[in-house]
Amino acid sequence: MKKRKKRTLVYVVGDYLAATITWYFVFLFRKIVIESYRFDLSIPFHDNNFFEGIVLVPALWLFFHYITGTYTDLYKKSRLQELSKTFVVSFIGSIIIFFLLLLNDYVRKYSDYYLTFGFLLFIQFLFTAFERLTILYILKRNIYSGRVGFITLIIGSNQRADEVYKEMKRKEKFFGFHFMGYIELNGGGENTLTTELKELGKLESLEKILDGNPGIEEIIIAIESSEHHLLNQIINRLADRNVTIKIVPDMYDILSRTVHMNHAIGEAFIEIPPLMLSEWERITKRWFDVIASIIAIIITLPVTLYIALRIWLTDRGAVFYTQERLGQYGKPFRMIKFRSMYKNAEASGPQLTSENDARITPIGQKIRKYRIDELPQFVNVILGQMSIVGPRAERKFFADRIVKSAPHYRIVFKVKPGITSLGMVKFGYASTVEEMVKRLKYDIVYIENMSMMMDLKIMIYTALTILHGRGK
């Protein structure tokens, strides 16, 4: 993993150098070709724009590349896709830089603007594409030589699993799969993988096996048609894991166009990535969360101080209340809220709130009605533990009970929990596990349709809920 981070740094440095060299040539082009009638050619750096640009422009390009998800999964990048993506980002970035820094240049005719833009785009794409393809070539050689690989687990042990393993093993140098073993599905045919791979255990031990091997990145599910009834169970049990799931399809899957291929020479798989959003969407959502949270904390500071004083005056107890909740991939974190209950409200164990709950203080009733008790969670958002919009974070005590009734609940762990959610605005607080299960369908709908537009709609609904005091 450390080696991969170093390779990412090399990629960043390469992009920085490409952008710096590009600006140097663009500046020379402007002075020698476009503005030669105004400046003495012996002193091409006549003004300070060059030195300002040499600092600003490379930083802008790194920002463009970052928000479009360039610096992730370098070893899994397709060179052809990276080339096309580089051109698109170069085109859009060149337009932005042209309007920011080059539009005010002195020109004899408007065609000089087109010439300057065309030169900027051509040089930027040329240098960036060259250094990236060079770096990716070296990284691919590391995969081909076996120095770098992705630890892979196969679930399945029958003929289909054997065929997939042998096919992937034959092309192992192209994809970097490092097979560590397989999980037996408890019968269903003759086990043909025993002589090739190590059996790590049975399906019922799946979570224990994954916990004992945290480096697993890829899981290939290769089961027979007669075992398809196990597919949902397996996917649900993997939903809260940061792994890429690849499912070997049958003919129905192929005809229904659910099969995804990353490489022309690759095996056909139905692929379920560990993240529900694309990299640029994830980065955009994260930036929005942080900026919006900082603004929200500043704007609500007078309210925060007033509520803090009221809570303290109630019983001279702590103003804030922290509680362990489960975050993305089931990792626990301490969620911060305004304390809305009397001290030692859960001395007898975890309990869900109910209508007219005697444990809630008078000021607690008011701040819960208008969801003000959740204002401190913006700190959790800034720390990266939560998002503004996402499924409600639950305690492990209740999450375990929900899983027993609805195993697909684990899907919510694929994303960060949120301060508000579609389930909260459509269903509201749940006072029983059964109500939590009913609310779950809204969280699943949100996860399957995640987007910034969806987040915006939920935030508007939340604002209306707060204004009308429909919380509880």
Structural notes for this entry:
29% of the residues are buried. A 6-stranded mixed β-sheet has the order 3-2-1-4-5-6, with helices on both faces. Strands 7-8 form a two-stranded antiparallel sheet. The protein has a two-stranded parallel sheet with strand order 9-10. The protein folds into 3 domains: 2-144, no CATH class; 150-272, Rossmann fold, CATH 3.40.50.720; 279-467, no CATH class. It contains 17 helices and 10 strands. Mean pLDDT is 83; it is low at 254-259. The protein has helices at 2-34, 49-67, 79-102, 111-144, 159-170, 172-175, 206-212, 231-238, 251-255, 279-299, 301-315, 362-369, 377-382, 396-405, 422-426, 433-448, 452-467; strands at residues 150-155, 177-184, 199-202, 218-221, 244-247, 270-272, 320-326, 332-338, 387-389, 418-420. The chain is 51% helix and 10% strand. The protein has 472 residues and is α/β, with parallel strands linked by helices.
Low-pLDDT segments, ≥5 res: 254-259
> What global shape is seen?
flat
Helix content: 40-55%
Overall average residue pLDDT: 83
State the distance separating the first and last CA atoms.
45 Å
- Count of individual helical segments: 17
Radius of gyration: 28 Å
Structural class: alpha/beta
- The proportion of residues in beta strands is 5-15%
Total individual domains: 3
Q: Largest sheet, order of strands side by side? A: 3-2-1-4-5-6
Strand element count: 10
Q: What is the string of SSEs from the N terminus onward?
A: HHHHEHHEEHEHEHEHHEEHHEHEHHH
Largest sheet: 6 strands, mixed
Provide tags for this entry.
about 50% helix, Rossmann fold, about 475 residues, 3 domains, 6-stranded mixed beta sheet
